[in-house]
Specification:
Mean pLDDT: 89
Low-confidence stretches: 1-28
Distance between the termini: 50 Å
Helix content: 10-25%
Largest sheet: 11 strands, antiparallel
Length: 265
């Protein structure tokens, strides 16, 4: 069965199985809420496998019932909020994007990879208040048009909303279509660019670690910082594109201000 049909079936099954949680969530919709906005700049690789960094937005929006701390969100997770909650389990949509990559970016006559807008879903489970695991998968609706996913785990230490520290490992995966877009070199592209032909398969793309810290500075304002380091492995690390004009090291970092409004805080 095609991957997209399996994914759609998984979405439908999860929605049906977790319908009671949707009802409970709707019943709480009228409870007073607080909202927290996090906004600032972040540095990240310009494209998967790049050595050059680009500046982008570090953005997050969270809501929480009055008197309840904001739910933990890792600073590097995709944009999206839980659609359903069932005990320690949560499920919802995930969105991402990757900027375009041109021949000039890779310093070789290779095909352009357009702006990639990704949409998918995540599932996460809190094994304890201090430990959360999460998986997500996203499909490129444009650009690379492949599947990309991530498996993560986070240790969390916090004092309500006054401060929060998290750290944990990351494993990034991609299917063959995704990896051929960024790391592959077809025979025709090899002849045009001078790079060796390379046909990567799907699998693990990188392994890494993320750490983040949030600190409330007053009644409304706060500050957040994070750092992440990934190391390309397997076919991604062996790509002629990475060896020619990229890097196996994939660091990223961000800093932002937060503002909380609504409720008493």
């Amino acid at each position: 069965m095609p991957a997209y049909r399996l994914f759609n079936r998984a979405l439908l099954s999860a929605t049906v199985l977790l319908a009671p949680a949707l009802t409970a969530h709707a019943q709480q919709a009228d409870a007073p809420k607080r909202t927290r906005i996090i906004l600032g700049p972040q540095l990240s690789p310009a494209w998967p496998g790049a050595k050059d960094m680009t500046i982008g937005p570090y953005v997050d929006l969270s809501r929480s019932p009055e008197g309840t701390p904001f739910e933990f969100e890792a600073p590097d997770e995709s944009f999206g909020s839980p659609l359903v909650h069932s005990g320690n389990f949560a499920f919802g949509p995930a969105f991402g994007f990757i900027g375009k990559r041109t021949a000039a970016d890779v310093e070789a006559n290779l095909p352009k990879v357009g702006l990639s807008i990704e949409a998918g879903a995540f599932a996460q489970y809190s094994l304890a208040p201090e430990f959360r695991v999460r998986i997500e998968g996203r499909k490129g609706l444009s650009g690379h048009k492949g599947w990309v996913g991530e498996v993560s785990a986070d240790y969390i230490a916090r004092d309500g909303d006054d401060w929060l520290f998290s750290i944990g490992p990351r494993v990034t995966l991609g299917d063959a279509k995704y990896r051929r877009a960024y790391f592959g070199v077809t025979p025709a592209a090899s002849a045009a660019s001078g790079l060796a032909a390379f046909d990567p398969g799907g699998g693990i793309q990188s392994v890494g670690m993320t750490a983040g810290y949030l600190r409330q500075l007053g009644k409304r304002w706060g500050v957040g910082v994070y750092g992440r380091y990934d190391r390309l492995v397997g076919d991604a690390a062996d790509s002629p594109i990475v060896r020619h004009s990229g890097s196996r090291s994939q660091p990223s970092a961000g800093i932002a201000l937060s503002y909380t409004f609504g409720g008493d805080r």
